[in-house]
Amino acid sequence: MDAATLAADGWEPALAAALIGADRAPPPAADGFFPAGADAAGALLARLAAHGIHRLAGASLAADALDPVPERAPEGPECPPAAALRLHALVTEGYSAQSTVAEWCDCAAAAGVRVPSWLLPLLLAYARQYPETRAGITAVAGPELAWLGRACGEAPDEPSGDPAEGSGEEADWQAGTWQERRAAFAGFRGRDPEAARAALEAGFKREKAVMREHFVAVMDVGLSAADEPFLEACLDDRAAGVRKAARNRLLRLRRSRLALRMAGRARAALALGQKRGPLGGLLGGTTTTLAVALPEESPELARDGIEPSAYDPKGGRRAGLLRDILACAPLHAFADHPPRLWVEGALRSEWPMEIVEGLYASVRDEGDVAWAQAMAATLGDAFAGRLAGIKRTDALLEMWARATALLPDAEWERTLTEMLRARQIEAVIVMMGKGPDALSEPFTAVFLDWLALVTRGSANIRNDLARAWILGGLHTRLHPGEAAAARAAAVLARLPEGTQAHLSQQLSGLAEALELRATIRREFA
Amino acid sequence: MTLTTAQILDLAPDAASRKVGQDQAKPPKWSGLGRSGTVIWGEIKGSGATPYRTVADLAGPASKCTCPSRKFPCKHALGLMLVDAAAPLAEAEAPDWAAAWARGRESRAAAAETRAREPARPVDERAQARRRQAREDRVAAALDELDLWLRDLMRRGLAAAKAEPYAFWDRMAGRLVDGQAPGLARRVRALPGLAAAAPGPGGPRPEAALGLGLGRLALLVRAARRLDALGPEQAAGVRAAVGRPVGAEEMAARPDHADDWAVLATTVEEEDRLVARTVWLAGRRTGALAQVVDYGTAASPPPAAPAAGQDFRGALAFQPGDPPLRAAFRDGTSARSPAGPLAGAVGVAEALDGYAEALARAPWTERWPLCLSGVRFGRLRGTEAAGAYGVGDATGCLVLRPEPRLPALLAVAAGRPVDLFGLHDGIAFAPLALVAEGSLYALPAQDPRPLLMRVA
After folding, report:
1. A480 vs chain B: nearest CA distance in angstroms?
2. Reduced to 3 DSSP states, what percent helix, strand and coil does chain B have, rounded to the nearest 5?
3. ipTM, 2 decimals?
4. Which B residues 437-456 touch A at CB under 8 Å?
């Protein structure tokens, strides 16, 4: 036997013989190629070794056995190396860097640069692990990641849950998984809300409760007054989830019967009046009062979703009912008096926080700027002691901060700037915990200057600042830039000796984060 | 001299150090930073009462820190080097403690040099010969025992052997260690892993892998028992494969191979408590490949070596063996590699011919380095490896060993032809470095994540 025939087909028989063993499958007699004189096991071992090596040395695949992956077209210039290393560090950091990764992507998109190819697999894994960052990452590496996913033989990521996208004109909303059906129905609603509702109504009773809830929730798409009868009927559905979904849709229609019922209940509970001071109002003028008739529990209220909560912290069950009714009542129910009077009356009433809380929820849901302004101003006056007979409490301050946060961003900043100038430290600390997500550059400068002043002030103020724990959340909201980073670093550097550790930690975290955000921008320059 | 971030991170003794080292790489945490030539220093506040003083020599790279960590280099030294890599430190006058450390290093290096120049003590040749004979007797006995054990396996069949517990293989490996044949012991210990591995696309069936492993072992035993019939280089190669270390004197007598050696990749494997670090080099002028292996422990890392993306300009000494591959560094300097194609890269068919030639000279070779030029990534079809990843050019293609870092290679190659360096075991090819558009990308030595670092 020569080497050529040996290589041709010797390996598989040799391996098969080796598997069985020389005891049960004695190898053929010595054939000249293998040394004579070896026992059966030795001969088998030699055959296995020789055929194995020949197989390894000769194994090769023809060029056409390979399907090359398609070439990826370059999408744009790569980002600078320093920025790429920054992204690598952020992605490696993981969970805590999500907002910074998103910010990096925004900066890269603004600079018109792409992620370098060596980072793509890490970024793909990151986008899958933290879906909140997916939109930003897609903007700077979308086609590249899609290409990589295809090259790795993976199914493309499912489309994002944008209901308008739907899955094509012909998608059947009556078949498929619940996600497919929901998306298909959303598409149907987007095309023709009337027909979609009619089609849903026809087979609604036969759907399972979970599916009914999904469909009612999707009716947000193209919601109009014409949907009201159907949604009103859903308030009697057997499933609590469906009732809740229908109620939320109906409350969005501020003239729906449900909303009008709530308005009626609110008006029945609250009555504004005037009280004259002594001597017919000559002393103390007139004050606004609010007569409150707390609602009773009833099946009608329960049908409309107003039920007493066993966990109401204070005030009692019926005051809780009133708060929930006010939160659902449209603001036009209170149109007969200016908002300011309502808030003032509420503050003087027996259940001030419940009523203001309810009104606040309604203002927030309707986004009514006039109400928000009136509410913030009245609460501010009350906290400043300009309204007689109202106690200054922490709850009042908290409510004021929340109402102020409903103002438009520019107005919020204007209000806060005045407070910073007026050194209303206690209020500012609470106010800064809420408010717009992205603060403007001038306001950031004013705030950091204020912070510099306050941190060098008395130890009590520093203590209050540290305990409020607001600085940690501010680093994403303040306007990033070299100036802000330098200001924050200066605040930290000039911190007096003996400052509490938890304040200096918060400040160094703030300075570090602002520096990082400035660095990210610098690296794209 | 500056090290890149990737090179510094490769110095870290473990993954935890890599992570916390990066945390220390923030300039605000440091005070008194400065550099003088290649020596950099700084002070950092740790949990101790006084700040730790950290000093590092980038040329080494070597470092010293006053922190109580038993890891080396500690996180502070890594952080200090990373700070310098991000933005080079300013020249300054070294403080006493940093200057003292640098002086100490210089004097120790000088003392070592003088020691090396001193004449060696006379050797007792008779005792040496006696020791050598005793060792060879022990190895011969171990070879006989292994041969008997292999035949016994063959008699019972591989199907029966696959069912044996690990202790069965480990007992034989232990006997081989006693018989001063650690190279054979390592191969025996690897056999149960081959038999138990799950078959995947591109990988061999477990019984075929076991058969191939046993075959290689049998050939090595056979060669080791017939050393007289082999040439001196081949015999030395067999002795090395059996596990006889190459002595310092023998190495000193080996000739220099001067070249511009491009460092292509570094791999780190943990064997028991030892860390084996392998540096793969390719000669830019000769196209020769070399493998430098150094060992270290957690407390004493392997000696410094040029990192991937650098060129070692100087001489290597190859250990005796045929074909030559294992080598040691001699005098030389490292510098950043120039951009360009992979040194010594050839087409797939030619590379496979080279592999076959290496097998012809040393059939027990387990893995052989290949430099491929202008290959594309893709999927294989129509073979038993259908669906597996492969690389290929017009002359042929290779199956890629499945591994989690393949997406990184695919992403960087972007479907274009690239140069690839890696290890081939006859069945699948495991890439270690890639050259795309003139830039070298290396798989990080100790990072399982799908990531390639651009090193040059």
Report:
1. 19
2. 40, 25, 35
3. 0.78
4. 441, 449-454
